[in-house]
Specification:
The structure is a homodimer. Chain A is of the alpha/beta class. Chain A contains nine helices and ten strands. The structure holds a DNA duplex.
Chain lengths: 210, 210
DNA sequence: TAGATTGTTAATCGATTAACAATC
DNA sequence: TAGATTGTTAATCGATTAACAATC
């Protein structure tokens, strides 16, 4: 039943999932409630119930939600029951950090290829993956049916690289490049720019920082 | 005139600023319009005009906005006219990447201290900064009046570290730790979690990824 | 049965957009 | 003057919340 769920709702599901996983580890109780979740996440219980109701009825009156069951359901909804292969473009410091982050692997995202243009980096090991030269990127995407890319390249080559990725079949891009990328409608894009985040916060800081 | 600007508006200002800076570099024209900006950012021109109108009148009918002037104004509004000192907590791979990112420095954020608990890292150089042992963190914050921290530590110590930072006077935290942190109302917090971003995007991916 | 909590409806709140008078 | 574009008002759209019947 994929009517037309607001993107803002989809945006919250991974947060719910993360907290539920945490609950399932902390906890001997098999159940939780929208109220407990809401309290932990700092949002309203009505919102959680409303969000979940877009996808079905997962709770029971009086007892709330079975944690393990709700985790399963959220994973199913978000297409997290399978292992996703991910390519990483850019083997600089940030690429390094991403390649070494164990959280991807643990949650079903496996970085299988790393690409860069710098001859000095090509052939070096990052995590357990050898950095490959960029020329092979289309083949890697197509042969392995890879749908997800992480982009950690300099701004100057970001749009060109994006176009290449999409042409080769990539459908979701997580980018760390601080520019607005042009992508067709069928491609998902998600930005991470620490400067933008810092600049939002300084608005709330008192100016006199002696 | 700080009535009560919606946070969602504040969130867009750095995006406008980023695009304006870009425009000012690409371009010989001194002016732009809400329409041009809107087109580049993929949002509506009305929204841009509305957002800016919260803070004053920066444009001229018929000619639009002077790019340099609007940049100045946005920087003033966001408190970006001064240099902000930032401490970085966590000198792992991610800390490394952050310490080497030149964009901070260029945009008025200077990472002046890096802290870690790992004795193997303490004393090593990262960028141009020596990693210090965590014990000195309160003194560094207080003596330098630092208000902004970037948190790149393991999940298990994140809340404790957050509490310490806030107690010492930190008011804005950019965190890469994948948990919901509890902070008092006067503290700004901004999250960056690549897994959450990936999990949002997989919702839109077709499940059959053979 | 009494207490708790869901899923959902209706009311409220807030954000976006359309439209246009003002004016450069 | 004619054309362009602002700032703003009013209309629309969408998201959040309050409330409660249903029911475990």
């Amino acid at each position: 039943m994929t009517k037309l769920i607001p993107a803002i709702v989809i945006g919250r599901l991974p947060i719910y999932l993360r907290e539920l996983v945490r609950l399932s580890k902390e906890n001997t109780r098999p159940n939780t409630s929208s109220q407990e979740l809401a309290h932990r996440l700092g949002i309203s219980s009505a919102q959680i119930r409303k969000d979940l109701s877009h996808f079905g009825e997962f709770g029971k009156q009086g007892t709330g939600y079975n944690i393990a069951y709700l985790i399963e359901q959220l994973q199913r909804i978000l297409h997290l029951t399978e292992q996703w292969e991910v390519i990483l473009v850019g083997a600089g410091y940030l690429g390094h950090a991403l390649a070494h982050y164990g959280g991807f692997q643990r949650r079903g995202f496996r970085i299988t290829h790393v690409f860069d243009t710098d001859p000095a980096l090509i052939g070096t090991e990052m995590g357990e993956i050898v950095v490959q030269k960029i020329e092979g990127i289309e083949a890697a995407i197509q042969e392995n049916g890879i749908k997800i890319a992480i982009l950690a390249v300099p701004r100057s080559v970001a749009q060109k690289m994006t176009d290449r990725l999409i042409k080769a079949g990539i459908l979701s891009i997580l980018t760390y490049t601080p520019i607005q990328l042009k992508v067709p409608d069928h491609v998902q894009i998600s930005y991470s720019d620490p400067l933008v985040q810092l600049q939002q916060m300084t608005y709330y800081l008192p100016r006199d920082a002696d």
